[in-house]
Amino acid sequence: MQLHLPRGLASLLAALALAGCASTPVSKAPDGPPGALLWVGNSFFYYNNSMHGHVAQLVSGGDKSVKHRGVSVTISGSGVDWHDMESYLNGGIGKYSFLPGNQIKFNPPGRQFDAVMFMDCSQCPIHPQLGPVFHEYAKKNSDAIRAYGAKPVLFMSWAYKDKPEMTQQLAEQYTKAGKANGAQVVPAGLAFGKSMAKRPQLDLYTADLRHPSLAGTYLSACTVYASLLGKSPVGNTYTAGLPADVAAHLQQVAWETVQEFNAKK
């Protein structure tokens, strides 16, 4: 038997059904380290051949039982509101992967990432006009990521070299946004501050006093590794070509920073 509804009522019921589907998570974000991580940000991520590649190398140089891949989506100079998170998650990003021998693996439909890590522009969270935008999009993005079935992560960026006071200012805003939205926070900015206090002669910046040197990118990658995998990077065989003593220092700083930050939660 077929039930015929008035056209207007049928359309309304269809719209409600679609709305219900859109608000229902695809699946719960998996527990444990993310096997696939989407990075959404700006040039702070893509300097030095992209931070996500260094994290992948750290994973390869650490616990071999962990499987991890990262995909980076960056716009130069971008603020958090320049990115359309929902389009990234519901579009074609992560649709296929390249395998050895230049073979393509088409991934099954559905969630392609277990976690999404995003950041704002370098000064936006503490800018008098853009600070509210940061908190607005921290919530909007965290909600979209959870609806997709993944875990939201905020990347706490670092102070400018000539404005060290930014360290605590940025840390306060990222921590506040993380708590408000139930999002994990990677304290890379605090790691920069700790490294400079311990070893000020080690330059974590390029000549513009903003972007990371290779050492700065490596320190951030170690902090991401320690935060998301819950593992110490100390002793990791991947050093990004840095001198052994420099890599060891940065590994230790990252691990100490993450432990201290997590202890204050």
What tags apply to this protein structure?
265 residues; five-stranded parallel sheet; two-stranded antiparallel ribbon; disordered N terminus; alpha/beta; 7 strands; Rossmann fold; globular
Can you offer a commentary on this structure?
The chain has 265 residues and is α/β, with parallel strands linked by helices. It has a single domain, classed as SGNH hydrolase (Rossmann fold). 45% of the residues lie in helices and 12% in strands. The chain has helices at 7-23, 43-46, 51-61, 85-90, 131-148, 166-181, 188-198, 214-229, 244-263, and strands at residues 36-41, 69-74, 96-99, 103-106, 115-118, 151-155, 184-186. It has a 5-stranded parallel sheet with strand order 2-1-5-6-7, with helices on both faces. Strands 3-4 form a two-stranded antiparallel ribbon. The longest helix is centred in the C-terminal third of the chain and has 20 residues, at 244-263. It is globular and about 50 Å long. The N and C termini lie far apart (59 Å).
Radius of gyration: 20 Å
Order of helices and strands: HEHHEHEEEHEHEHHH
Roughly what fraction of the amino acids lie in strands?
5-15%
CATH topology: Rossmann fold
Residue share in helices? Answer: 40-55%
Largest sheet: 5 strands, parallel
Mean pLDDT: 89
Unreliable runs, pLDDT <50, ≥5 residues? 1-26
Architecture, according to CATH? 3-Layer(aba) Sandwich
The total of helices stands at: 9
| CATH fourth-tier homologous superfamily | SGNH hydrolase
Record field, number of beta strands = 7
* Helix-and-strand structural type: alpha/beta
Shape: globular
- When the domains are counted, the total is 1
Give the neighbour order of strands across the main sheet: 2-1-5-6-7
What would CATH call the class? Alpha Beta
Q: N-to-C terminal Cα separation, in Å?
A: 59 Å
